[in-house]
Amino acid sequence: MKELKNIISQNVRKFGMIIALFGILVIFQLLTAGTLLTPLNVTNIIMQNSYIIILAIGMVMVIITGEIDLSVGSVAAFVGAIAGILMIRMELPVVLSVIICLAIGALIGAWQGFWVAFVKVPAFIVTLAGMLLFRGLTMVALGGRTLAPFPEGFRMMSSSFINDWFSGSTFHILTLIFGIIATIIYVIQEIRGRKDLIKYNQEQSSQGLFILKVIILSLLILAFTQRLAVYAGIPYILIILLALIIGYTFYANKTIGGRHIYAVGGNERAAQLSGVKTKKVKFWVYVNMGILAALAGLIFAGRLNAATPQAGNLFELDAIAAAVIGGASLTGGIGTVVGAVIGALIMGVLNNGMSLLGVGIDWQQAIKGLVLLGAVAFDILNKKKSS
Amino acid sequence: MTNTILQMRGIIKEFPGVRALNNVEFNVEKGEIHALVGENGAGKSTLMKVLSGVHPFGSYQGEIVFEDHVCQFKNINESEAEGIVIIHQELALIPDLSVAENVFLGNERVKRGIIDWHETTTETNKLLAQVGMRAKSSDLVRHIGVGQQQLVEIAKALSKKVKLLILDEPTAALNEAESENLLNLLLEFKKQGLTSILISHKLKEVMKVADHVTVLRDGQTIETISAKDGEITEDRIIKGMVGRDLVNLYPKRNTKISDVMFEIENWTVEHPQVPDKKVADNVTLKVRRGEVVGIAGLMGAGRTELAMSIFGRMYGKYVSGTVKKEGKEIIIKSVDDAIKHGLAYVSEDRKEYGLILQDNIKRNISLSSLKKLLKKITIDEPKEIHVVEEIKAKLNIKAPHINQDVVNLSGGNQQKVVLGKWIFTDPDMLILDEPTRGIDIGAKNEIYKIMNELAEKGKCILVISSELPELLGTCDRIYTLSNGCITGEFPTNQATQEKLMTYMTYNKGEEK
Questions:
Q1: CATH top-level class for A2-160+240-386?
Q2: 8 A C-beta contact, residue B406 and residue B351
Q3: Is the CATH number of domain B4-242 3.40.50.300?
Q4: pLDDT by residue (tens digit) across A109-118?
Q5: Fold match between domain B4-242 and domain B259-342+427-512
Q6: CA–CA separation, B112 vs B135, rounded Å?
Q7: What is the ipTM of this complex?
Q8: In CATH, what class is B259-342+427-512?
Q9: Do B167 and B111 contact (CB within 8 A), yes or no?
Q10: Which of A192, A249, A273, A279 to substitute to test the interface with B, most B CBs within 10 Å?
């Protein structure tokens, strides 16, 4: 028990947001009399928030290097507009269009990265300029009108589900199999990690706690896939999200590039004097952000089935809020991909729950603002207490 | 005991898990300079924080008597009202305000709610004359040197009608001439009846000016030595501080100095902003295998600039010059190149340029050597843990765990982490810029031992320092640097402090 207390107080930063997400889920589940976690709504929450999650992943990388990107909403809108022009006006094939769009995202990222990393214009200014620039270009490209509808093949990415090879009737069997495999992989990973810790004499939690944690998380994965299976199964977008989350977590924790990103944000001069190519690191983080903003723009356009001039409005703030709620520090060096995703989910569940309750968009904004402030204040107070 | 201005009796201060002060007794006589010495973490700063009210009354046990009445300060303002003023090691000046504005910051001269600039300026000028400052009251603090800034802090203290002036490591960032100046100023104040407490690691200074020396160790008063009895000796202070005889601060080494490893020839670098201003002017020097070579220079002589320009052109604009390793020219255009060619640079400012403070020991030590840990595309973490544990043990880094964040380590241990980072890169030449700045004697001794071990392994070591005893105690050969030029070269056995100082202040343009 004492150990549990210790662990919670030590990891409140890490656990805090998971507890918050859990608490919000429980509150809205009760308030909405069970509507929140119906299979349909669980699927909805994932699909509605997919583009914010994608932006949050890119944003947390930017924030870890100690910078910021205010332009992602406009970039997403711009890329959506380009996608509309390519696919609807010019009738280019979907795959080619998507590739061109992602490349444009990369170019935009390179443009902003160039100013931030090499010319050393403050990122706030560069991306504020980008926010105006690309919003303007979106309107220019679309001529102020909305382009619709997108071809079927394109919309699949953001709104279709994987077919059930087993054609289950009440359950989507493939989804269940997927859930079981994911659980097994997760358990194996955890056990392996713990073995390594023991082998190298590193600190580890007691066996009881470890087993408890693994069981709870396994049950959560299974429960989540069960929800999906009852409705329509796994949306394609979930596969994309999982690939991104796993890929970026791996990159941030296990590779040299990831270490360098944290080092640059932690202390740029020291990193530079340790042989880290700080300018290149920043440049590529912006290129990456550009690509992810483009991907988010494509998914949003596909989901809306239209390219509109107002797409992606305020996405940048949602993405920043997600990263910060997820524990990232705007001074750099601190933050995790998983944290940003959880932050995005907290915002998403709040949105969804409040909509279910019939809270107007006006109050939703206000409440989200308070949640953001509260989350960061909690974090800072917590840090003070521990130091 | 009417002559006593301050008595601190039985002070106990506890932080969660540690007793930082354990029954400390500290008495200061009126009009004296009282030195407070101790290793880092001995409790000097904590004691001064208790005195000044940073740790408010009630958060500690014990009694403070100042000018014959018991004081219970709840914050800094209350202690300042009594005339107790602290000048911290990290100066608390606003760089973009003028000297006068800084002096009266928070204590503005006002007439009917509006700042009286006339009085502010005249008062400041009086105070500046008192502290013997060259800068004008209208100069921006940003534009004056560290030594002058220190004087601004003192002027600020004087403006508050100070009775007891506390200086925390005032000379840490000053060169010898500025330190000298500051100490003389303290002696001058003493004549005028001002009492000062001087916290310092530099025992030579302490012995020069102090009337009493109180030694703290592990939160306890070890002893108070009086100058009257002529008992203040370096050995006695050190013994008190470390709790044992430090047989030799500068340990001996058995090195075999062999052939020349690194040569720097005609190295010229310009200031990054001011064209034609040469920060390194035709510098030529060489370092042999197993040799410890010193560069002695005053602050502003271009020592750090020279080192950083060699280390991957991290400072200034490269004009000309070559670096040779074992007779062959090597091109170093980035830190990466420098590391590849076996160079390592330990910065004088470990917090700004050496460490990622919020990262742990492991990540800091491995940062420059991640390529060595590469397994396919990932970092081989078991290997990383293994190597870092080894380095931690070898350098005797005192921390419970390699996952400890370096921000929580003491200065000496932080410095060892930086050294560890570079030892991991397995360099052929280490450039150590002020390797023992701000760390205590015990840790200094350990750093010197590490240097010796590296030299014994045949590495080259280039030490930059403004502490001449350190250079004389550790180096085989010493260059002097002045205004970006090498002005002299001496085998250590032919060098003395006076001789080095002469060449360190030698100006190329001047007739000698």
A1: mainly alpha
A2: no
A3: yes
A4: 999 999 999 9
A5: yes
A6: 30
A7: 0.86
A8: alpha beta
A9: no
A10: A273
